[in-house]
TrEMBL record:
Signal peptide: none
Naturally occurring in which organism (per UniProt): Halalkalibacter alkalisediminis
UniProt entry tagged with the keyword Metal-binding: yes
VOC domain ranges (all copies): 4-127
UniProt keyword Hydrolase present: no
Source species, domain of life: Bacteria
Alphabetically ordered keywords of this record: Metal-binding
CDD domains referenced in this protein's UniProt entry, alphabetically: VOC_Bs_YwkD_like
Protein name: VOC family protein
Short name of one Pfam family: Glyoxalase
InterPro entries per the UniProt record, alphabetical: Fosfomycin_Res_Enzymes, Glyas_Bleomycin-R_OHBP_Dase, Glyas_Fos-R_dOase_dom, VOC_core, YwkD-like_dom
Length: 127
């Protein structure tokens, strides 16, 4: 029935700060950027890898994300990486705090977490 997940949508509090984070720090490529004046909202389509996408939205007055304890809904977004240690070092060199690398007890794979400017949990998962 489904082929794959086409995109994940993220609502940010500071569009320019989040755009800089996802484009300049994480290195995602811009597919398109649209300002929707009727909503006073930006929509930034970003390419992850060769075909996956993130839609970054800004909406004035959007409520903060629930966390710690976590609320219902999407828990986090995970990025597949080839070398988790090298990716962790790159992010830390760009001023991003990254948790220690752990091993997934079920799969034996390495993973860790960091956060975007709105404290959305982002995961690195090594395959």
């Amino acid at each position: 029935m489904f082929n794959r997940i086409h995109h994940a949508a993220i609502i940010c509090s500071d569009y320019q700060k989040s755009k800089e984070f996802y484009v300049d720090i994480l290195g995602l490529k811009i597919i398109s950027e649209t300002y929707r004046s009727e909503r006073k909202s930006y929509k930034l389509d970003l390419l992850v890898g060769e075909k996956d996408q993130i839609e970054l939205f800004s909406f004035p007055g959007a409520p903060e994300r629930l966390s710690y304890p976590e609320g219902r809904g999407l828990r986090h977004l995970a990025f597949e990486v080839s070398n988790i240690e090298a990716t962790k070092i790159k992010l830390e060199q760009r001023g991003i705090k990254v948790e220690r690398v752990r091993i997934d007890e079920q799969t034996g794979k390495k993973f860790t977490f960091f956060q975007d400017p709105d404290e959305l949990p982002l995961e690195l998962y090594e395959l």
